[in-house]
Amino acid sequence: MTVIKHNEVQRHLKRLTQDERSVFYPVYLLYGEEVLTKTALQTVLNVLMPGSARQYSYETWEGLPENVFGAVQSLNTYALLDSGKVVALLDSPLFSATQKGTTPSENTRQGQATTGDASEILMTALSEKFPDNHYLIMTAAAVDKRRRLYKATEKAGLVVDCSVPQGDRQADRVAQEAVLKERMRSLLSKHDKMLEPSAFAALCDMTGFDIRTFQNNLNKLVDFVGDRESITAEDISAALERTKQDPIYAFTNALSEKDVGNVLFYMDSLLSNGYHELQLLAAAVNQVRRLLVIRNFATASAGGVWQAGMSYNTFRDRVMPLIQNHDTALKEQLADWDRSFTGDGEVAGESKKRPAGTDLLIAPNPNNAYPVYKLMQRAMTFSREALLDALKVLGHADEYLKSSGQPSRSILTDAILKICSRLET
């Protein structure tokens, strides 16, 4: 029926809702860049099934071949509510995988379908139509437009192209920049902010074409500038530069944001670039310890002025001085402990050692309050018990890494998954 680009979805569906003669498409295929595909999916859902009905009449299935038979069965089963039903097959490989087989087999019904089986089932379902107000949504990373399944889907419903050229040609860069500008305008308009041209160029240079990171950084910048309308290149240097300079920061930052996908992504990237598992484990331990220290501070009398939803400017003016006083007192206490163990004198020719326990400081760099502000926000989303439990898991992983014969990457991955599940509580 129709093929449109990702930025046309809202307008296209709005026209359908305004035309009383129009009927919504029974099937939707959304493919391409992950963030754009997810955005398009939410737009389609908001039109097909708005409001509370979605929690009763919306089903999601992982788009593997063995799930297709069950999804189609569900799609052809009448919904409990008059509003209809939406079934989604997410991240399906069927549109790009090499097809084998031509007809559905008995294995399909036993959860062992081949790609060819699943494709045939879908094409049969598309040709036979669905019950009224029943809709199928499929998402895919990529499509092969030569495949029969793609052609059948295009004929039956709406295809939304969310792909963006990934090359380095001038035309590719122009297309990527257009997408980032679109995301920038959409996000900043909600906060009455604007990004200066030099700041946009600096942000693109820092993130490359990574929509998720680009959006996350924009949100950080909105918090950073507070009431100020304009975001400058200097703001980007102040608020975001550390991510570029310290790759482990991206890993620990994702951990504090409870973003399992990005934690594992950055972990794999760092390990592939020569970092050792023990380095990443130590970084995770330090981050969890900092979250625990900050949470304890915020809930104590010294941190009593902190409130959820506090603006960055208020934090900088009211809370940051208390943090600096806390850190100064801690440094003095640590120095006293060092002197009690080592004595006051120094051995000639020996350099002074870094004071023990400085990783317990809330603001090691007090000149930049913004990272502390963000970490304070995140720390308050965890329970004290969850953080203590996470430290135990990391401690066990340290023992296994140093003493067991298991693959180091597997031990680290298992520990990360365990603590992320605990931090969610």
Task: Note the topology.
Elements: E1 2-5, H1 9-18, E2 27-32, H2 34-48, H3 54-57, E3 58-62, H4 65-75, E4 85-90, H5 106-109, H6 115-128, E5 134-140, H7 148-156, E6 158-162, H8 170-189, E7 194-195, H9 197-207, H10 211-225, E8 230-231, H11 233-245, H12 247-256, H13 260-272, H14 277-299, H15 312-342, H16 370-379, H17 384-403, H18 408-423
Parallel strand pairs: 1-6, 2-5, 2-6, 3-4, 4-5, 7-8
Helix pairs in contact: 1-2, 4-6, 6-7, 8-10, 9-11, 10-11, 11-12, 12-13, 12-14, 13-18, 14-16, 14-17, 17-18
Q: Can you walk through the features of this model?
A:
The protein has helices at about 10-20, 35-50, 55, 65-75, 105-110, 115-130, 150-155, 170-190, 195-205, 210-225, 235-245, 245-255, 260-270, 275-300, 310-340, 370-380, 385-405, 410-425; strands at about 1-5, 25-30, 60, 85-90, 135-140, 160, 195, 230. The strands form two sheets. A six-stranded parallel sheet has the order 1-6-2-5-4-3, sandwiched between helices. Residues about 100-110 and about 345-355 have low confidence and may be disordered. It folds into three domains: about 1-160, Rossmann fold (3-Layer(aba) Sandwich), CATH 3.40.50; about 165-245, Helicase, Ruva Protein, domain 3; about 275-340 and about 355-425, no CATH class. By secondary structure, it is of the alpha/beta class. The two termini are about 45 Å apart.
